[in-house]
Structures are given as structure tokens and as C-alpha cells.
Specification:
CATH superfamily of chain A: P-loop containing nucleotide triphosphate hydrolases
CATH class of chain A: Alpha Beta
Oligomer: heterodimer
Helix content of chain A: 25-40%
CATH topology of chain B: Arc Repressor Mutant, subunit A
Shape of chain A: globular
CATH topology of chain A: Rossmann fold
CATH class of chain B: Mainly Alpha
Mean pLDDT of chain B: 85
Low-confidence stretches of chain A: 58-68, 205-216
Number of domains of chain A: 1
Largest sheet of chain A: 7 strands, mixed
Strand content of chain A: 25-35%
Largest sheet of chain B: 3 strands, antiparallel
Low-confidence stretches of chain B: none
CATH architecture of chain B: Orthogonal Bundle
Number of helices of chain A: 6
Number of strands of chain B: 3
Structural class of chain B: mainly alpha
Structural class of chain A: alpha/beta
Radius of gyration of chain A: 18 Å
Number of domains of chain B: 1
């Protein structure tokens, strides 16, 4: 997906001077599933790429001798930006679903509004880990099935393969299409709105209670 | 001749920050918007100069990191130095709920309006 971040000229488009509230939405998915394509489809700017350093200490190893001489590795991610109004800017992050990435989730994406899990129905197993981690972190999410023209599966088949609760929206999309990608974001925010309204009504502030499939 | 960047040895990166690997404060979110409060001056560290130029308009921490080609945590340290000196101001996200907390419906309605107008 490298090409997806480099085929437009690197012109900076500054935000207006009144911008003062940044929001985050994360698009999670396996390699090549179209995360950066989706970000590019709706972003006001050419997607940018950055990275964060993950040290062994960041993985919860307390013994400093265990990390001597070693080792930091980096996790790269792409992002784009949508100005929603004069004050509010939505940042969209394309995040790899690989295991090491989740060690950085809280540092990078605490306070995210929610997540889109982008899946390729030919490789559904690639999404299992991401879905599990989002549930673990209590991050509300929806699942969007990117159309790669593979064999058709019913929504029920996909739900079953992903062990996905009926309460979590599952939609089809074409990440190359601005309208379709915009629809995915709207579906996510409508889902968040419904969860938020429900939690306010029931007097609880936890999203996870309504978003999780299994309630203890 | 080489510029600090993502392929550098981490030791090289830490020289940019005086050996520190963590920002003193958790003041900066990825999407905290940074605004310069002064012009770059001679004698400033070159990364500080670049940040002050970038942030003439509000610029998120993650954008600063991408444009400087430096890891986010290194950029946060550079920013905390500039903040302590009053050379930048920081506009923090107003949605700061924890991982299990949902933003309020008013904010989400604003987001929906913005997205539908795209």
C-alpha cells in the first residue's frame, strides 16, 4: 500500500486558525485490506505516514537488564484529516492489526471516538485479533467489508466467521470510493451515537457493556 | 549531511532530546493542535525552528511528527520543551474520555453533520 501515500504532491494544506478540537477515528485491518485507500478517499490532505517507537519496556518488562543493548522497534501508521467545521478536525488513522501494534494502542489511541475494522472476506481470519483487542480495550467499532470482487458471502456468514454480535454494524464498502468511505464513517458515528444515547439513558457511561457480545 | 529520521539508530534520536525518552508531561495527545507563539530565532535547535514554522497554523502533533520524519514520542519531547518556554500553545482534544467512555451525543451530532456535508 506504499503507493497510496505517495501519488499526490506534498502540498501542505494548513488548518484554519480557529481549529481547536482534534478527534480520532481508527481504521484497523490487515496488510493490503485498503486502510490507506479508505483514509485517502475521505481525507482533506494527502495521507501522511508516521511512526512511534516501541521499546521492550513499553511491553511491560520491568527488569532493565532484560532490555540492555536492545531493542526498540517502530510501528508505522498512516493518517488523514477531515475538517468538520471551523473548530473540529477529525483525524483518521490507518492502523496495522498486527500483534505488536496493540502494545501502543493506549499511548496512541486513547480517547479515540471509535474504530472501523476493515475486512477482506477472502482473509477474514486476519481480523480476528483486531476485533478481540478492540473488545478488550472497550473501543466501540463497526466492521466494514471492502469489496475485492471475491466470492460473495452473506452477511450472516461473515458475522459467524467473525463471531460478531448482532449489535455491531456490519456493512459493505468500496474503500476507493469517497461516498462509500464517507458512508462507513457515518455508520460508525451513528453507532457511537446510539451507544452514547443508550448509556446516558441507562445511567452508565461504559460503552463496552453494550458493545460486547458476551455479558458476564 | 544526514537528517534525523526513521532509519536512524535510536541513540541518534535521543541526542535530539538531551537523552530523554519520555516527555515530562502527558500534555500532548496525537491530535493536540499546536500553535506557534513566536518566530524562530537564531541559535534555536533546528527541530525547534522547523516546528515553529510548521505550527504557524494549528498543526496536530502527529502531523508535526510526519513532517519532521521523527517518531511521535521524540516530537512530544521537543514540543514539551517549546511549551515550557512559552513558544507554542497547545489546544487539547476536548473529548478526553477513557477507553470505555463514549463521547456525548452533542459532539457526535456535530461530527455527523460535518461528515454528511463532505
Amino acid at each position: 500500500m506504499d503507493s497510496a501515500t505517495s501519488d499526490r504532491p506534498a502540498v501542505r494544506t494548513p488548518l484554519g486558525s480557529s481549529a481547536d478540537n482534534g478527534l480520532k477515528i481508527v481504521v484497523v485491518g490487515g496488510f493490503g485490506v485498503g486502510k490507506t485507500t479508505m483514509v485517502r478517499s475521505v481525507s482533506d490532505i494527502r495521507p501522511l505516514n508516521t511512526e512511534e517507537i516501541m521499546t521492550q519496556a513499553g511491553q511491560g518488562i520491568d527488569d532493565p537488564s532484560a532490555v540492555r543493548g536492545k531493542t526498540s522497534t517502530t510501528v508505522a501508521f498512516d493518517f488523514g484529516r477531515i475538517s468538520l467545521n471551523a473548530h473540529t478536525v477529525l483525524y483518521l488513522f490507518g492502523a496495522p492489526g498486527q500483534e505488536r501494534f496493540w502494545f501502543l494502542w493506549d499511548r496512541l489511541f486513547a480517547g479515540t471516538l471509535g474504530a472501523v475494522v476493515l475486512v477482506d472476506t477472502r482473509r477474514l481470519a486476519d481480523s480476528w485479533y483486531a476485533i478481540d483487542r478492540l473488545e478488550h480495550h472497550g473501543t466501540p467499532f463497526i466492521v466494514a467489508r471492502n469489496d475485492f470482487g471475491g466470492p460473495a458471502h452473506t452477511a450472516e456468514q461473515v458475522r459467524e466467521a467473525l463471531d460478531l454480535s448482532e449489535t455491531i454494524p456490519l456493512i459493505d464498502c468500496d474503500a476507493r470510493s469517497r461516498a462509500s468511505s464517507k458512508g462507513v464513517l457515518i455508520t460508525l458515528v451513528e453507532h457511537l451515537h446510539a451507544l452514547s444515547a443508550a448509556s446516558t439513558a441507562s445511567g452508565t457511561s461504559t460503552a463496552s457493556a453494550t458493545a460486547r457480545k458476551t455479558t458476564p | 549531511m544526514s537528517r534525523p529520521g526513521r532509519d536512524d539508530d535510536p541513540d541518534r534520536l535521543y541526542t535530539l532530546t538531551g537523552g530523554r525518552s519520555r516527555a515530562e508531561t502527558d500534555a500532548f495527545d496525537l491530535v493536540t493542535l499546536v500553535v506557534s507563539e513566536c518566530e524562530p530565532a537564531t541559535g534555536m535547535q533546528s527541530e525547534h525552528v522547523r516546528i515553529l514554522r510548521l505550527c504557524e497554523h494549528p498543526t496536530a502533533v502527529v502531523e508535526v511528527a510526519a513532517h519532521l520524519n521523527l517518531p511521535v514520542s521524540i516530537v512530544k519531547i521537543l514540543l514539551s520543551d517549546l511549551l515550557a518556554l512559552g513558544r507554542i500553545t497547545a489546544r487539547h482534544p476536548r473529548m478526553t474520555a477513557g477507553a470505555a467512555q463514549l463521547p456525548d451525543t452533542d459532539l457526535l451530532e456535530q461530527v455527523l453533520v460535518g461528515l454528511r456535508n463532505l
